[in-house]
Amino acid sequence: MTDTQWWRQAVGYQIYPQSFFDSNQDGIGDLPGIQAKVAYLQSLGVDFVWISSFYASGHVDSGYDVTNYRDVDPQFGTLADFDALIQALHAAGLKVVLDLALNHTSDQHPWFQAARRAKDDPHHDYYIWQPSDGQTPPNNWESVFGDSAWTANPATGEAYLHSFAVAQPDLNWENPAVQREMQAIIQWWADRGVDGFRLDGVTHLKKNADFADVANPRTDYARDFAGTAPYLAALKPVLTRNHLLVIGEAGGVDMATAKQWLDPEQGIFDLLLEFDHVHFWEANESKLPMTALRENLSKWQLALENHAWNALFIENHDLPRAVSYYGDGTAYPRRSAQALGMWYMLMKGTPFIYQGQELGLPNAHFHHIQDYRDLDSLNYYRRQLAAGTPETAVLGQLATKSRDNARTPMPWTPDQYGGFSTHQPWIGLTPGLATRNVQVEQSDPHSVLTFYQQLIQLKKSVPALQLGRYELIDTHDNQLYVYRRSYNGDNWQVVVNMSSQLATTQEFDLTASELILTNLRVDADSDDQEIQPWEARLYHLRKLEQ
Ligand code: NOJ
């Protein structure tokens, strides 16, 4: 491992700035609010933060519709606040990763404002256009947020493409001027001291050049990964020159492409956020498909084993809370949050923790459409109602799946608004404030937060848990996920019951090993072959034969 691969031994923490901490009491989190919590990040033991998009924005897609890539949105503060924040984070030993939406800008961005005025404007070719009569979309392509991916622009007799919201026109990456703009933006932030980027939506960049109808109108028009390679190659020099950590958000990427993109010599990314495991859960709502999950995650673990490095995550600002979705937030909220933490974090790779995950926060589970802020959720509600789905059913789906479930304010104390602000926050809080907050969990040795601190400490101090080979121990059942990590003869084993029922197994013998961490209290039954619901155990197999 070289110095520039520091991230292989690091734990990352994602901050959603709207909801982290509000320093100026306007109900919205901000950059000085992050600075006020640097000591907390240090106490957690994480090594870098990825801060979700905070550039000047049109506020349609929560900061991912950028109007100026070289400024901080006033709701989050100023560039001076950013400079102070990065200084404070660096002084505390934390590295800083920014989020960069490459695929689109805001429709309020000066580039698009100029582009839409006339075909001969120099910025026109920054975006993707097709002739339009103003009525019929040029083809059947749909946006990720629903409805046609085209919006008419009468001034030029065309329609522009938007893979996401109407207010997020897609950039034309075929245009070298666009590539140069993004290179310059990356250099500008690198000069301000940032340590890396999470490049948003990279699997959307390359569009089918024939603009013909596609079989799956949501995905099929932008999954040309070979065609994406030149765009990524254009960014590589600026990223490499500045020794930046490069994380790609790569929904839908296939393994062969992932291997190429992650190749330490030829590739561009250090870490890829791929969503295979998330889709398993999405498709199997009531029960975790353990066999498929074991196969899938092990496949990624082994494919990158000697070749590249995995990113490990179970939450982010686009997903519901793991404890509600994958765990058992009703019968085993604490234990299942801890079990999920051990399960994913001790695999081989760099773990990401999304703010509040370390507290075991469940879904916000809002009851009224007025509680929602996320445009994707609001669009979904509108479309479903128009299609005749009863409102109660739609609200039920949103309560399970909406992105707002994980975008609520971080609860710091049991006080009003969770100590996030003294002003009513921009979105409601997650229920359960009295027990699920930083202050209370910090002083509870059995809390989810304390368990996460222990996991982070172990992950960072035990070479086998960082660098060791991953091996699945297949228990051939529907409950257990068991794997081993081995490094220079030092062997560790993780045993997690990912169900709310007792699990019994004869598949392994742990009598000669030492139990290092468990999420069950000491008085609980810890029979080797009987694993309690959502019990998680980490063993050190010192006496195991090689
Ligand atoms: C991915 C971001 O994570 C998500 O929040 C956003 O809506 C889309 N990209 C579009 O920018």
Automatic annotation (TrEMBL):
SUPFAM superfamilies: (Trans)glycosidases, Glycosyl hydrolase domain
Single GO MF annotation: alpha-amylase activity
Entry-linked InterPro entries: GH (IPR017853), GH13_cat_dom (IPR006047), Glyco_hydro_b (IPR013780), O16G_dom_2 (IPR045857)
Keywords: Glycosidase, Hydrolase
Domain named Glycosyl hydrolase family 13 catalytic: residues: 14-407
The keyword Transcription appears for this protein: no
Biological process (GO), any one: oligosaccharide catabolic process
Pfam families: Alpha-amylase
Keyword Secreted: no
Annotated family: Belongs to the glycosyl hydrolase 13 family.
Name the UniProt record assigns to this protein: Trehalose-6-phosphate hydrolase
